[in-house]
Description:
The protein is mainly alpha-helical and 94 residues long. It has 4 helices and 2 strands; from the N terminus they run H-H-H-H-E-E. The chain has a two-stranded antiparallel ribbon.
Amino acid sequence: MKALFTIGAILFALAGCSTARHWESRFGDAVRQTREAQTLDPQAGLTESPLPLTDGKAVAGSLDKYWTSYGHGTKGAQQEVSANASGSAATTSR
Length: 94
């Protein structure tokens, strides 16, 4: 009787492990699906076209609106926007 109980307990434990393969095969699917849904352009690294430049006045206006939306002013902080060799805009504070 004790041997039958032991065999039954072992079979019951192994039956619980048999469903683990289903879970392991799909592990991380939600993360991968969410990352793919949030990716704007998956082929961005393969294109050779440069990004469009934003003019300095638009960037300065955006920064000013951003800072004033949080109650901070940009008075006294002059910002200079210039294009570097790679074609992207760089902002420096003085």
